């Protein structure tokens, strides 16, 4: 029995050493990036990924940095194929999808959203609703929006929901939603902008103009 335990410890030791070593090197690269040494950080992570291509934290941090550097992540397919949808770190999922969205790869963003099951969180469902709306997939956008309870949402979240409603030509719903956001933050530029767009969408040009004039007086 003792021999079996010793064998197990010896067998597992290299695995734990590997994990600890990789984490230390990965964290060093992240520290270099935060210190402004971008090229060095990218080079370090790239070298680590050549050795450990399936390490999910390495993949997450590398792709996160590439996204922060405004790189189109669809060009990094050799890394994307190694992502494990279950084990990939939560902190990197939405930024990955947001990158696809920023580069107008809406269908790709939707595909990854469903792979990651992002709709399990409020922000994830809102993002998926917006993606469907931007892809002009009206049926799925409506379906996702119908599952969002606007009670308790922040002004920023409400603005995104209103934006999605407006894109799928539901201006009344958009206006009703953004009004809740305006009640929370009357001086927010993003709230004001969406409010004006939604008023214009229903033909309320005079009120939109009055809103803009009122905001200019308070600046």
TrEMBL record:
This is Tetratricopeptide repeat protein. Residues 1-19 form the signal peptide. InterPro entries: TPR-like_helical_dom_sf. The keyword Signal applies. Coiled coil: none annotated. It comes from Acinetobacter baumannii. Keywords: Signal. It comes from the Bacteria.
């Amino acid at each position: 029995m003792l021999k079996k335990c010793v064998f197990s410890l010896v067998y597992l030791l290299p695995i734990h050493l590997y994990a600890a070593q990789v984490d230390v090197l990965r964290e060093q690269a992240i520290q270099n990036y935060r210190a402004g040494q971008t090229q060095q950080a990218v080079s370090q992570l790239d070298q680590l990924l050549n050795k450990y291509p399936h390490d999910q934290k390495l993949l997450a941090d590398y792709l996160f940095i590439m996204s922060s550097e405004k790189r189109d992540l669809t060009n990094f397919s050799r890394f994307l194929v190694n992502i494990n949808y279950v084990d990939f770190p939560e902190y990197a999922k939405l930024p990955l999808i947001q990158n696809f969205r920023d580069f107008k790869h809406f269908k790709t963003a939707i595909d990854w959203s469903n792979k990651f099951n992002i709709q399990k969180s409020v922000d994830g469902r809102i993002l998926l609703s917006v993606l469907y709306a931007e892809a002009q997939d009206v049926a799925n956008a409506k379906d996702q929006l119908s599952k969002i309870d606007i009670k308790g949402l922040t002004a920023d979240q409400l603005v995104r929901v209103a934006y999605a409603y407006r894109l799928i030509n539901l201006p009344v719903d958009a206006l009703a939603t953004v009004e809740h956001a305006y009640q929370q933050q009357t001086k927010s530029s993003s709230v004001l902008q969406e409010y004006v767009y939604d008023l214009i969408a229903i033909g309320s040009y005079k009120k939109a103009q009055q809103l803009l004039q009122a905001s200019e007086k308070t600046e």
